[in-house]
DNA sequence: TTAGTTAAGTGACATATAGTCACTAATTAG
DNA sequence: CTAATTAGTGACTATATGTCACTTAACTAA
């Protein structure tokens, strides 16, 4: 399974026979994820109750160790861990940052590679409601709860990153169902940014960026029904504000 | 040195007596840095010739293992490694991303936390000229050289991130001397972005953002002398384009 | 059927930012 | 003193965003 990417010289093989992973004094490495969703007009995050020491019984972010024999890379590790808790793969995962210090874990020097992910609430609601050690928590509530390790800090940083994205991209849309309305998306952005936005400006920017496809369907609750949109597939970047290149 | 941040329960101590860092099968962890500078109208990066296996003799990025007994956190690790090669601390360091897979290092599953840093060429020119295993290499040249491990990929990603920053911030200015002229900064941004910029637009944006201080000094070579500026201290963000918050 | 309510979506003008380029300013070389 | 060179500005144009009243399309209750 562990195949060297670069062909080793014979001198290198002599070296490798002696030194392998596990022989080096290296920090403990974990991968964690902040999985966001938007539900009941609130930003929510997935929390998991720890089954093992340290911090047994406390709530924290979903994550875990790299499965050395199974995971091809870090992305695979985070996808496997999220799949284990939600039963599905989130449509958007991106690496946030790594946190490492001598004191963040009582076992000693440790590093976590933290990811940020987004998913529709309904996509995994049943799976999550059926177990007691995994649940959606409103972000504002999670931010003031005592969490395992430095997971509070990871939440703060993930939230700030997502807030930044709301200023110039439609990435937050992955926290909504496949088909969603522009007023829905605007509400999400307003919650993230923390202030109301101009309907006209918001729509104009998104329409001009051509990142969404109008499905033709409508959905209404009370007043005029809104058009349902979906993300345009194969879109590398999700920017809706002009940058200085164009 | 390794003091738990959170006070452990007695049950936890029983656990910790048994399990410590080193007992877990965990990937090899290293920290690498892409140190940029701007010199001779070129973007350059610091490369180091590897003294040990694997990839002994090949050129790669400065970096190394976490010193478990010495480094308080990952930032300390990267600063120590850069200090060892340049003799000084770069004025700007930020984390870029982490790269981990089963195959990027012949020793097995490994992860590197990659940083991006900027420094003035003159700040460490003597130190670097005095040794043969460390040198500045023009980025375009480094990008087509065979480098150790996946360091080529790290270079590509670091360059792209710095290019993005050039579009909306003056962070690249840390690759210049303490005092620099606006035409100098503009040239750097033009090299990064890959196209010429409008002098007036560039100046206007930077002046309006009030991120630079005019030192009153002048420097000229041929024509009218240009004003020398320095970075305004205590500036958290270095954005010079309006964002949608303001 | 119709008037009132609600929420979606648009028209049109005001304001702010960026692009363009000719012009002025300050220095050196000869 | 004049030409060459590079720094820096004035003033207009083009484009993007802010604002808000207005129209549209649904529902509900007389």
Any overview of this molecule?
The structure is a homodimer of 246-residue chains. Chain A is built from 7 helices and 10 strands. Chain A has 246 residues and is of the alpha+beta class. In chain A, strands 1, 2, 3, 4, 5, 6 and 7 form a 7-stranded mixed beta sheet that branches. Chain A has a 3-stranded antiparallel beta sheet with strand order 8-10-9. In chain A, a hairpin with a 6-residue loop joins strand 9 (212-219) and strand 10 (226-231). The longest helix of chain A has 18 residues, at 151-168. Residues 1-6 of chain A have low confidence and may be disordered. At the A-B interface, helix 1, strand 5 and strand 6 of A face helix 1, strand 5 and strand 6 of B. The structure holds a DNA duplex (30 and 30 nucleotides).
List strands and helices in order, with pairings.
Two copies of one chain form a homodimer.
Chain A: H1 10-18, E1 28-39, E2 42-49, E3 59-60, E4 63-65, H2 74-86, E5 92-101, E6 110-118, H3 125-129, E7 134-138, H4 139-142, H5 151-168, E8 180-181, H6 182-193, H7 199-209, E9 212-219, E10 226-231
Parallel strand pairs in A: 1-6
Antiparallel strand pairs in A: 1-2, 1-4, 2-3, 2-7, 5-6, 8-10, 9-10
Chain A binds a DNA duplex (30 and 30 nucleotides) through residues 181-183, 198-201, 203-205, 208, 218, 220-227, 241-242, 244.
């Amino acid at each position: 399974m562990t195949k060297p990417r670069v062909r080793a010289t014979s001198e290198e093989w002599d070296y490798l026979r002696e030194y392998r992973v596990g022989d080096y004094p290296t920090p403990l490495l974990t991968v964690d994820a902040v999985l966001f969703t938007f539900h009941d007009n609130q930003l929510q995050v997935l929390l998991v109750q720890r089954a093992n020491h340290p911090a047994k019984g406390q709530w924290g972010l979903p994550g875990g160790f790299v499965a050395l024999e199974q995971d091809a890379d870090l992305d695979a590790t985070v996808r496997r861990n999220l799949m284990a808790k939600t039963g599905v793969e989130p449509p958007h995962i991106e690496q946030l940052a790594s946190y490492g210090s001598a004191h963040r874990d009582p076992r000693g020097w440790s590093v976590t590679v933290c990811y940020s992910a987004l998913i529709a609430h309904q996509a995994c609601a049943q799976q999550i409601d059926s177990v007691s050690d995994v649940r959606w928590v409103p972000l504002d509530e999670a931010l003031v709860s005592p969490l395992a390790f430095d997971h509070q800090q990871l939440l703060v940083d993930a939230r700030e990153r997502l807030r930044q994205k709301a200023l110039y991209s439609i990435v937050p849309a992955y926290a909504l169902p496949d088909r969603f309305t522009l007023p829905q998306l605007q509400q999400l952005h307003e919650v993230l940014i923390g202030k109301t936005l101009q309907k006209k400006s918001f729509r104009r920017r998104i329409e001009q960026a051509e990142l969404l496809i109008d499905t033709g369907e409508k959905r209404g609750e009370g007043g005029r029904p809104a058009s349902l949109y979906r993300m345009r597939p194969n879109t590398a970047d999700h920017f809706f504000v002009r940058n200085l290149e164009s």
